[in-house]
Amino acid sequence: MTALRSNLATKSPQALFLNNKNNNFLKTHLKFLVSFRNCPKSRNPICCLSNCDQKTEFSNEMEKNSNWVSIESEVGDKYVKELEVAVKAVHVACLLCQKVQEDLIFNGGDVVENVQAKDDNSPVTIADWSVQATVSWILSEAFGPENVSIVAEEDIESLSKSDARSILSSVVKTVNDSLSSAARFGIKPPVTNLETAQVLEAISRCNSTGGPTGRFWVLDPVDGTLGFVRGDQYAIALALVENGEVVLGVLGCPNYPMNKEWLNYQNGYRRILSRLTKPDSASWDGNGCVLYAKKGSKKAWMQPLLSGDKGVASARQIRVSTIDNPVLATFCEPVEKANSSHVFTQGLAHSVGLRNRPLRVYSMVKYAAIARGDAEIFMKFARAGYKEKIWDHAAGVVIIEEAGGIVTDAGGRPLDFSKGMYLQGLDRGIIACAGASLHDKIMGAVDASWNSSSL
Ligand SMILES: Nc1ncnc2c1ncn2[C@@H]1O[C@H](COP(=O)(O)OS(=O)(=O)O)[C@@H](OP(=O)(O)O)[C@H]1O
Ligand SMILES: [Mg+2]
User: Which residue, 88, 211, 71, is CA-closest to 142?
Assistant: First the structure.
């Protein structure tokens, strides 16, 4: 634990990458500067500060005064292109899903036709396949197909069957519609519409099985498909793993706007509210959000999901909640009892003194809620034998960690993304917290009650 905490301790930056907006701010704060020169590796000026106190004071001032910055100004050189492309791809995917959800659920779309059951009986929709094809195509165009390896949730087996002809043509149309309007995000659409074979190829190209070495993307095209088909919360999750470590995470949450109260509204109620309060694309209130973080940056970011033909907006930094008193804390967990034992978490909540009722939310939106500071704890205790998949956690974990939180298994160990498609060796369950004090308390409660539980 001590090692884990010291790893999580914030280190003062050695240097800060600045954009023009920050440059103006700098002129009024020259007292902080020791030297100011152009960074040899980027176009951005870089300032070097002489001691830790100055660095910390300067960082605090920067945060207060320039909350909104561009991606390039923040993440330094490494993974800039990867992050930029991934964020754009997730924006495209969010809009695709919003459109499909709207058609499917709210405009009387053919649910029987467009929602299929997988072998494990979980649902899969045209959105799952369409997002997978779209993101796979965008990544391949940006980096070259030979450089892109993707672990993703869907395959083309059921989509290729003869009785799936109509759903396949819906997928092809959805992908082409989505890519043809991707120019608003600076993504060059295909010269001509993708053929069916190209769409199937893009989906099936996501056949990496991950592992401890090299670089691969991890994609959950629609996480929380049950929430998606119920008109509720869902997420698009894209992460980059290098040598077994998650280095980038991007999480699109199309039904999670700025106002955290929205998380409490169930299904149709959220939809009615969204229609009553007409979304203003310039504000944060009516639409979803995209969160992202780069490993080791100690910063996580959120952009509003813009509607209409607007592209990507500036990002705002997010931090986890500062609440460490269990009485005031809120914990999130899966909606479905089959996915995590509500009885067990209720016992944990009682023993650590959590008073608020659990926030049951579909998908990795739970990770987003912790990273944004809208809730303090996420717990998941799946039934014995269930193997957690890396795509259900990778993006969320790095975003929470960089926003200042902690994510481990119930034994306090970091989740291991280096063992293939599954989180092998996971000790009992997953605990994500805003801070170490809450995390310690939950782990202690798990230890105290595990043997008497039915898990
Ligand atoms: N039996 C069982 N136990 C544990 N976990 C399971 C189980 N079945 C499925 N899954 C995975 O859980 C993903 C959804 O997790 P959530 O936290 O969103 O659960 S819930 O839908 O709110 O109940 C879900 O992701 P999606 O398939 O992307 O929706 C699954 O990967
Ligand atoms: Mg999932």
Answer: 88
- Whole-number Å distance, alpha carbon 235 to ligand 1 midpoint, is 12
Here the ipTM equals 0.97
Measure 363 CA to ligand 1 centroid, in angstroms. 7
Cβ 224 under 6 angstroms from ligand 1? yes
Which positions make up the binding site? 153, 220, 223, 392
Radius of gyration over every alpha carbon of the chain, rounded to an integer in angstroms = 22
Question: Coil, strand or helix: which one is 128?
Answer: helix
Phi first, then psi: what are they for 454, rounded to 5°? -95, 10
Ligand 1 in contact with 392 (CB < 6 A)?
A: yes
Active site residue 128: yes
Domains of the chain listed by start with CATH number: 71-318 (3.30.540.10), 331-449 (3.40.190.80)
- Ligand 1 and 225: CB distance under 6 A: yes
- Residue pLDDT tens, the chain, 455 long: 333 233 323 222 222 223 333 333 333 332 233 233 333 333 333 333 333 333 334 344 333 333 445 554 555 678 999 999 999 999 999 999 999 988 877 666 565 566 777 766 667 889 999 999 999 999 999 999 999 999 999 888 888 887 888 899 999 999 999 999 999 999 999 999 999 999 999 999 999 999 999 999 999 999 999 999 888 899 999 999 999 999 999 999 999 875 666 666 554 555 555 555 544 444 434 579 999 999 999 999 999 987 766 766 789 999 999 999 999 999 999 999 999 999 999 999 999 999 999 999 999 999 999 999 999 999 999 999 999 999 999 999 999 999 999 999 999 999 999 999 999 999 999 999 999 999 999 999 999 999 998 88
Binding-site annotation, residues for Mg(2+): 153, 220, 223, 392
pTM over 0.90: no
Burial annotation 331-345 (CB, 10 A radius, 16+ → b, else e)? bbbbbeeebbbbebb
